[in-house]
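@channel sequence for tomorrow's demo:
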Amino acid sequence: MKVSVAMAAPSVVMAAILGAAPVQAMAAPAADADQAAAASADGGVPDVIVTANKREQKLQDTPTSIGVITSDDLVKRQITDIEQVTRNIAGLNVINAGPGQNTLMIRGLVGAGESTVGLYYDNMPTAGTGDSASSAGGRQTDFLMYDVQRVEVLRGPQSTLYGSSALAGVVRVLSNPAKLNVTEGRIDLDGSLVDHGQAGYSVKGMLNVPLGDSVAFRFVGYGIHTPGFIDNTSYHKDNFNSADTWGFRWNGTYQLGPNTTATTQLYVQDLKSSGQGYEWSHPSVIGGVALPAAGDLQSNAQSREPYHDRSILAGLTLEHQFDNMTLTFTQSYQRRRNESFTDQQGLPLFFGSLQSIGAFPNVPLPNAITFRSQQQLTMWNSELRLATNFSGPLNFIVGGIYQNRTTKIDNSFVDVNLTTGNPIFANPVWYERAGDFKLTQWAGFGEATLKISDKLSILGGVRVFQNTRHDIATSIVPFLRLGTNGAPDDVHSKESKAIYKFEADYKPTHDIMLYASASQGYRAGGTIVRVVPELPPSYGPDYTWNFEAGAKTDWFNRALQLNIALYRVNWYNTQISGDFFNGSFSGILNCSGLCARSQGVEFDMTARPVRGLELTASGTVFKAKWLKDQPAISGSPVAGTQFANTPTFTLNGSAAYNFNVSADNSVELRVDAQHRGKYAYMDYRPQFNLMAPEAFTLVNASITLAHQDKWNAGVYVRNLFDKRANINSIADTVTPYQTLVAQPRTVGVQLGYKF
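structure tokens (generated this afternoon):
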């Protein structure tokens, strides 16, 4: 019998932990909470409080694989967006298409349809706005991370508590609430220069203002210029991929009574990107026409590719504390509008070649076009839950949710001015189709925990849900003006299901917790508007079963913290993108039964061996693969093929040393590194897989001088060795080879002041 190295090695580590548990227990008595706090104050790894299970728990007492970035780490590692989070959390990866255009994946699970990863800001769920129904999981919400408590990444299905789109896991960004009876503020300035590119800058600030003893507001505002570094050779524009972002956040806290609290959040952000950071990295042939590669950090795109994203996210949370339980009601609202343009110079070449062999009607074709996609998303989400805190052995959380989401999409092909790269709106469009996608979800959920002894607890959970969709699509201008408009598509679908979670945890000592779990996740199915009749009208939900075993451990009086998890995720009825009409159009299908699997190991380690020195590392080794042949997918991957756009290995690490230079001043030296393994496939078709992203390592370094807790000044270098890291690549039948590269070496300064 073959044994996977990725699974065998962690088993040895787990055995060592189990074997060492009684030795550690004999070597030193179990520390209580006060001793743990004392250890942290003495330089040990501090406790981190998380709310992954919708109640406060210590990270080391939560029997789930969770990656956490604390407030201090967000600042010191200069993490301000989701893409940067993925470089610091094991198991979390991203398909990146530029600012505000990310598709998240956890444990390699990603595909067509709804997002596989739930993304929450505070208690508020968010939704992506892809440019079609088949990419609804794309362009996930990406608010600036500033004045944030922490980021929690829940690895593995979380659907009993978080519902649809938590099939692979959940990312939670938790902002700092408004503080009662505290007046404080800060301002941060940043200036940078990118090799081969522009200068960048940002201004960010926060102000916390109390009004009496029972009301407080916290305001955050920011403006950011992200520098460009890609030059266009077609319309002669240097550094065209710059971006500008402004926004604000307003948090409110209201003490309505001795045991009743209300909190509010309002996020507003406007992002404008002048273009995507893709260089034309490889020559292409489309429709028999050779398209040459461009030079280093250059693009030959004929049209400009701006992206504009305007987002509003608002929420209200009411919480009432009873003697031994908490009743919580949350209401959130998301409104998001974006518009994107994508160069389509290969499309006329492709259809011209089909015409030349009589495989496509002899209709006029455009000379140069761009694909314009306009989206508008509106989502309401309501949740009511009750969580107990009994002194006895049984506690539970129960609740219900209602969600209503509407997405409007208007897609068209527009002529392009080859001199300026701008769209010619005065010309008739070559295609236009508008659609309204409505999703309504109802669900009831519950989890109960039974503490069998001081060391052993078990948990059971269930979620029962019903989803309904109603999609209407109207052809305004048929594809390439071919034929006449038909009747609008008007499609309904409905689904219901119950999913489950089981978990057990055992604490042989105060410093070691072992756990095992089996949990399900799911994604909603739906309907799809059809550009051509060959596309399917609807697709069903898919779901996962996750089997996981892990250990959370502290060693040497909390000088070392090591957490490890082994998992196997089975993916059933997987939603896939099936191709039609010579690969020119795609629609969502379901693979029937057990279709795919991801299995691997992930770990998180923090060490403070001596005062002032902190070392961290996190990594994952895994393989996400198909278990069945997939003839409907372009390239027809066979069973055993690794998923496209997934690495099998990632490793993140940091070293920071803080020391005093005087009684009031300290210096921190810091180095962070992120390694991502190569992709086996960016496309299952060999001719479009020539530029599958190779492995890369990016290194950042900084030195910061701080005066007490008042001000700080620092110098940093990102991408220290100026690596041309291939973040993402694209190519297909009508798209030339293009590579999204990491921002070149960037040198900057930061100034911060607190008051």
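heads up for whoever presents: The CA atoms of residues 351 and 524 lie 35 Å apart.
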